[in-house]
């Protein structure tokens, strides 16, 4: 047995007071003179030994009553799991999970309502002088301070559902950052959550000086189908043309979901409709087609009907339909006639020819496609800017010069993991095959002839083996690469083995040249992402935006408007939204009155998986200094008090003190042992 306030045990010295009173309070017999004994009717006789018994019982009752009263003030307890720091101030961190999954209903209402109640019960188990931290999924700055019990209860009442979803390790780290900054206190941390499987996938690391308790709230097993992601098959979007949207459906339930209605809205107008069946625990991709779009930013929304979980029934996306596609042609000073003729064949392409020494580096990111042709040696400055352009998602097509500086091309292309021209081969050759599985040729040919007419080569540059994965468009007889694409960063580099010169090959006049170049252009879009995820994408990269000192960029949705932190970097502008966005939807990016873009934000789909960690899984990942408490109808107050301070005995001591005080009263008033009545004759 231990004591919270052992100093009160010095009060046990007061037990000597009743003893001293008992020893020195001797009874003195009173002498009464009678003139005649005949007036004495009765004499009560009491034996001395029996009288002493009563006095000793009264003394024992007084001593025991005083003893247990002193013990009650010393707060005795039988040590519990976390009672080593009893007597010191407690600093308690309580995490209340307010993610979307906490909207699920149980017997107590929603899980969030139950979590609020549990948090208050935890606080009530501590002393009034202890301090508390309230933490939620939002990780707000105001949650990094300590509160009194009343302030904590008020803050708990204000907790609302949040789109954020964090891992258990993040939560533990946040709690530790505050608790470890409070030396000399007893530290405890509680995590109140439904503990979905997505919250932890590896053992948790926690400081051993902090006692952790995980409180799992139980919800029923609910079926749920959601839209995990969407993407468009076309990189470039032209007015009036058909678009194909791929929708990824995910069934998180253990049973098949049948005939789930789904529709696609563009700018509020329904464009496609479908009904789909998804197998249990399966992911399924479905394609919907629509057309008739006008130029400008398109605000898309996928809606499905799935109950009872509805927070993930909508998925937002946005994209831009361009009136024209800009293409930059960089040459040695003389425009290549073949390239000029190709892009002039379609008014959708808006080309600009510039010599290599007159390139506006700041505007490179505004071109989805840049074509280099007939340049003998690429300058260091241009090479560096083109590498940055490709790494950020741009597409670069290169046709070497007839007298190319091979060492210069090697230095330039090696840095982008692309093949480079090694040497000039003067032997005639012929293209022997097309890679019809390449995105450039995929779904282009309705039928493919057995003996197709392919480009003839008089001489060519032998291309090296590349470190990156090659997308070979055309190969020569013998297996050498004739035209290929290579991924580099977020973009792509296409390199041809011949210049656009008829002395090298008939490629510039061949029937394949125009469609291949068009397909490269149409696949070259490096537009903004179709959507972002709330809580994950806090830095948004957009094409460079020049703003004056007093100008501001704003993200607006209805009446909601935020001002992101804007930072300029090479080739792009970064917008930092931090935790300012809390609602999914489509936000308009504006510079004063002009609209720059429409950005779509969706909730984290990890909350859609309504499967939970069981006791066995939690035991494997939980720190050694932690305990698992399963939420139920029982109050947490007693559980927490017993865990932290052990079994409290002060109430028992008070009861025993009262019992012995009552015993003393009974002994004094009603206990009269050995009374004998002797009658004498008068």
Task: Give descriptors for this structure.
alpha+beta; 32% strand; 9-stranded mixed β-sheet; 682 residues; 38 strands
Question: What is the percent of helical residues?
Answer: 10-25%
Largest sheet geometry: 9 strands, mixed
Record field, number of beta strands: 38
User: Spans with pLDDT under 50 lasting ≥5 residues?
Assistant: 42-46
Order of strands across the main sheet = 18-17-19-20-27-26-25-22-23
Q: Strand share of the residues?
A: 25-35%
Q: Outline, from the CA principal axes? A: elongated
Short summary:
The protein contains 12 helices and 38 strands. The chain is of the alpha+beta class.
Question: How do the helices and strands line up, and which of them pair or pack?
Answer:
Layout: E1 2-3, H1 16-24, E2 42-46, H2 48-74, E3 76-78, E4 90-96, E5 105-106, E6 109-110, H3 111-124, E7 131-135, H4 149-157, H5 168-179, E8 186-193, E9 210-216, E10 225-232, E11 243-251, E12 257-266, E13 269-278, E14 283-290, E15 296-304, E16 314-321, E17 325-331, H6 337-344, E18 349-355, E19 369-373, H7 380-391, E20 395-399, H8 406-414, E21 421-425, E22 429-434, E23 456-457, E24 460-463, E25 470-476, E26 481-488, E27 491-496, H9 513-522, E28 532-533, E29 539-542, E30 553-557, E31 560-562, E32 565-569, E33 572-576, E34 585-591, E35 594-602, H10 615-621, E36 626-630, H11 636-645, E37 647-648, H12 650-670, E38 675-679
Parallel strand pairs: 4-7, 4-8, 8-9, 9-36, 17-18, 17-19, 19-20, 20-27, 28-35
Antiparallel strand pairs: 1-3, 2-38, 3-37, 5-6, 10-11, 11-14, 12-13, 12-15, 15-16, 21-24, 22-23, 22-25, 25-26, 26-27, 29-33, 30-31, 30-34, 32-33, 34-35
Helix pairs in contact: 2-12, 3-4
């Amino acid at each position: 047995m231990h004591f919270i306030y052992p100093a009160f045990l010095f009060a046990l010295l007061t037990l000597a007071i009743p003893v001293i009173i008992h020893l020195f309070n001797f009874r003195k017999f009173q002498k009464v003179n009678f003139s005649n004994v005949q007036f004495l009717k009765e004499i009560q006789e009491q034996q001395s030994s029996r009288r002493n018994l009563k006095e000793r019982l009264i003394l024992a009752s007084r001593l025991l009553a005083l003893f247990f009263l002193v013990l009650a003030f010393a707060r005795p307890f039988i040590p519990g799991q976390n009672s080593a720091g009893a007597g010191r101030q407690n600093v308690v961190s309580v995490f209340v999970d307010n993610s979307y999954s906490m909207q699920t209903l149980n017997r107590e209402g929603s899980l969030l309502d139950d979590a609020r109640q549990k948090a208050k019960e935890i606080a009530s188990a501590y002393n009034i002088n202890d301090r508390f931290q309230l933490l939620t999924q939002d990780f707000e700055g105001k949650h990094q301070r300590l509160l009194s019990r009343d302030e904590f209860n008020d803050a708990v009442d204000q907790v609302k559902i949040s789109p954020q979803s964090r891992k258990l390790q993040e939560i533990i780290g946040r709690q530790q950052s505050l608790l470890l900054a409070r030396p000399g206190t007893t530290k405890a941390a509680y995590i109140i959550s439904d503990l979905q499987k997505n919250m932890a996938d590896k053992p948790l690391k926690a400081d051993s000086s902090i006692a952790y308790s995980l409180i799992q709230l139980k919800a029923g097993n609910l079926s749920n189908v959601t839209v995990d992601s969407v993407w468009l098959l076309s990189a470039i979007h032209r007015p009036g043309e058909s678009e194909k949207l791929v929708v990824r459906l995910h069934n998180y339930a253990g049973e098949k979901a049948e005939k789930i209605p789904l529709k696609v809205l563009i700018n509020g107008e329904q464009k496609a409709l479908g009904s789909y069946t998804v197998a249990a625990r399966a992911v399924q991709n479905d394609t919907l087609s629509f057309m008739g779009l006008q130029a400008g930013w398109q605000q898309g929304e996928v809606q499905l009907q799935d109950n009872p979980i509805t927070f993930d029934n909508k998925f937002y996306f946005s994209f831009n339909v361009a009136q024209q596609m800009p293409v930059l042609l960089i040459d040695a000073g003389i425009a290549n006639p073949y390239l000029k003729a190709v892009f002039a064949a379609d008014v959708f392409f808006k080309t600009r020819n510039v010599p290599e020494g007159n390139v506006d580096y700041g505007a490179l990111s505004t071109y989805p496609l840049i074509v280099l042709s007939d340049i003998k040696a690429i300058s260091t400055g241009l090479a560096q800017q083109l590498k940055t352009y490709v790494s950020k998602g741009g597409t670069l097509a290169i046709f070497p010069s007839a007298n190319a500086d091979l060492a210069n091309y090697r230095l330039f292309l090696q840095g982008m993991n692309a093949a480079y021209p090694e040497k000039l081969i003067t032997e005639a050759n012929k293209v022997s095959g097309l890679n019809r599985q390449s995105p450039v040729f995929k779904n282009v040919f309705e039928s493919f002839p057995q003996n197709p007419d392919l480009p003839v080569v008089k001489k060519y540059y032998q291309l090296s083996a590349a470190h990156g994965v090659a997308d070979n468009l055309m190969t020569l007889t013998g297996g050498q690469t004739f035209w290929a694409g290579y991924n580099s960063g977020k973009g792509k580099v296409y390199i041809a083995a011949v210049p656009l010169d008829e002395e090298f090959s008939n490629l510039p006049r061949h029937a394949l040249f125009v469609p291949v170049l068009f397909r490269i252009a149409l696949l070259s879009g490096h537009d903004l992402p179709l959507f972002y995820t709330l809580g994950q994408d806090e830095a948004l990269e957009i094409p460079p935006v020049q703003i004056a000192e007093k100008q501001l960029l704003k993200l607006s949705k209805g009446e909601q408007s935020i001002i992101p932190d804007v930072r300029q970097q090479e080739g792009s502008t970064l917008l930092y939204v931090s935790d300012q966005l809390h609602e999914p939807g489509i936000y308009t990016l504006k510079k004063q009155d002009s609209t720059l873009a429409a950005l779509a934000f969706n909730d984290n789909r990890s909350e859609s998986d309504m499967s939970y960690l069981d006791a066995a899984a939690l035991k494997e990942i939980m720190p050694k200094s932690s305990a698992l408490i399963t939420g139920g109808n029982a109050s947490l107050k007693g559980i927490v008090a017993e865990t932290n301070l052990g079994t409290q005995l002060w109430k028992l001591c008070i009861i025993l003190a009262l019992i012995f005080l009552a015993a003393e009263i009974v002994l004094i008033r009603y206990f009269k042992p050995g009374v004998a009545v002797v009658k004498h004759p008068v």
